């Protein structure tokens, strides 16, 4: 599994970020670790006045009037500065609201947890290497919440883009430290709240790509049982490569309610 991940991401992500001089400069800004660069970038790119339009499908589409997700909030943060400043955190305005509102709802419910959100889309959508989807602003990668000794664990959340390379066994334990494991109950609760907030915006979860080897553990948790009976579609069959790549995060596609 680790070898396949390295093949897919160690080669892919640097190529994606090196596509233009502009992106290379953004990456350098991120490496400088200047908070003002993040603030300026956000305020110069956020779109809070014009509704976004998602064109085509998640696998063959584009995005108009995109908005930029905030880099951080009270209980969440984007996972990687280079990715953020490299233009990979743009999304449909409704998806941005759903994501932020979900974290706020969990905070209001008394959930004592800090979350990490991962990649969204390019500003105008289209292909975003190495992702096969993420093309029309309706796809989001959410980082798996982790725990150690029964309490939230955040040290591995700081790995940046290399987080995509992390490996977990079929029981959800981190292979390099089996005392660290996926918090399946929190992941299920988050997915349920995402769908709840999406429906308030006239949308719903269309599909969740979740490592199929981990679904039993997901469904065994308290909120996992509710998720299983919710009708939210969790992928049943994935190719080995795609399955292996989705143990450190889960991918969510949103769609308009019919």
What can you see in these coordinates?
- There is one protein chain.
- With 258 residues, this protein is an alpha+beta fold.
- The chain contains 10 helices and 13 strands.
- It has a single domain (2-256), classed as Muramoyl-pentapeptide Carboxypeptidase, domain 2.
- It has helices spanning 2-10, 12-17, 21-31, 35-45, 81-85, 93-108, 184-200, 215-220, 222-228, 240-245; strands at 53-57, 60-64, 67-68, 76-78, 90-91, 115-117, 139-143, 146-148, 151-152, 173-174, 177-182, 203-209, 249-256.
- It has a 4-stranded antiparallel sheet, with no helix packed on it.
Helix content: 25-40%
Distance between the termini: 39 Å
DSSP summary: helix tally: 10
Structural class: alpha+beta
CATH architecture: 2-Layer Sandwich
Give short descriptive properties of this protein:
3-stranded antiparallel β-sheet; 258 residues; alpha+beta; Muramoyl-pentapeptide Carboxypeptidase, domain 2
Q: Summarize this, please?
A:
The chain is built from 10 helices and 13 strands. By secondary structure, the protein is of the alpha+beta class.
Task: Please render the helix and strand layout as text.
Elements: H1 2-10, H2 12-17, H3 21-31, H4 35-45, E1 53-57, E2 60-64, E3 67-68, E4 76-78, H5 81-85, E5 90-91, H6 93-108, E6 115-117, E7 139-143, E8 146-148, E9 151-152, E10 173-174, E11 177-182, H7 184-200, E12 203-209, H8 215-220, H9 222-228, H10 240-245, E13 249-256
Parallel strand pairs: 4-6
Antiparallel strand pairs: 1-2, 3-5, 7-13, 8-9, 8-11, 10-11, 12-13
């Amino acid at each position: 599994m680790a070898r396949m991940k390295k093949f897919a991401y160690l080669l892919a992500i640097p190529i994606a970020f090196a596509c233009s001089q502009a992106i290379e400069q953004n990456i350098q800004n991120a490496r400088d670790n200047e908070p003002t660069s993040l603030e300026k970038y956000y305020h110069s790119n956020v779109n809070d006045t014009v509704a976004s339009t998602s064109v085509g499908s998640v696998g063959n589409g584009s995005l108009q009037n995109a908005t930029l997700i905030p880099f951080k909030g009270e209980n969440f943060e984007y996972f990687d500065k280079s990715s953020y400043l490299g233009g990979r955190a743009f999304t449909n305005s409704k998806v941005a609201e759903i994501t932020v509102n979900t974290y706020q709802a969990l905070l209001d419910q008394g959930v004592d947890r800090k979350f990490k959100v991962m990649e969204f889309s390019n500003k105008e959508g289209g292909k975003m290497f190495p992702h096969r989807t993420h093309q029309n602003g309706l796809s989001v990668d959410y980082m798996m919440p982790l725990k150690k000794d029964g309490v939230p664990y955040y040290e591995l959340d700081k790995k940046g883009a290399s987080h995509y390379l992390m490996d977990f066994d079929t029981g959800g334990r981190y292979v390099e430290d089996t005392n660290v494991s996926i918090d399946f109950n929190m992941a299920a609760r988050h997915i349920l709240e995402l769908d709840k907030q999406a429906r308030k915006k006239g949308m719903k979860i269309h599909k969740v790509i979740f490592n199929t080897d981990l679904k039993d553990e997901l469904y065994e948790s308290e909120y996992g049982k509710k998720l299983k009976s919710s009708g939210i579609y969790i992928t049943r069959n994935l190719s080995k490569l795609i399955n292996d790549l989705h143990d450190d995060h889960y991918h969510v596609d949103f769609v308009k309610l019919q």
